[in-house]
Design brief:
Oligomer: single chain
Order of helices and strands: EHHEEHHEE
Shape: globular
Strand order of the largest sheet: 1-2-3-5-4
Largest sheet: 5 strands, antiparallel
Distance between the termini: 21 Å
């Protein structure tokens, strides 16, 4: 998979979370991200994949390597058809939780990545798109 510029993985089991982390670690490293950014990206993947598994039972992770003049990046999209997030703004507040966790998941992902976009509808599902950029 080394150097893969795009892909898609299902998220149905805990082992799928590990597979997502591994695929993105390999892809981000091959793209030229340094170890610190690779760690940030993989941490975000772990959180978002776990959210899909815990809150929606299943979903998918898609990724693509992006290239623009002067920079390259990685885009990650996590999509599920779960119960959705009733208040995305509230979910982005540090400490807010619906699962008795520390409530740092989505706010933490926002800090780790350069861009985040969340669309969600109750009883329809959630799509989280994140991007991280580096210099080309």
């Amino acid at each position: 998979m080394d150097g893969t510029t795009s892909g898609e993985l299902p998220i149905k089991t805990e082992s799928d979370i590990v597979a997502c982390r591994k695929a993105i670690r390999e892809s981000a490293t091959a793209t030229g991200f340094g170890i610190t950014d690779v760690t940030r990206i993989v941490t975000a993947v772990s959180e978002l994949a776990r959210n899909v598994y815990v809150h929606a039972d299943s979903g998918v992770m898609r990724w693509a390597i992006l290239s623009m003049p002067g920079k390259v990046g990685i885009e990650l999209i996590f999509q599920d058809q779960g119960k959705g997030i009733s208040n995305v703004e509230q979910a982005m507040l540090p400490g807010y939780t619906t699962s008795k966790s520390m409530g740092m998941g989505l706010p933490g992902v926002k800090r780790l990545m350069d861009e985040i976009d969340i669309t969600s509808a109750v009883d329809v599902g959630t799509t989280v798109k994140v991007k991280k950029w580096t210099r080309a």
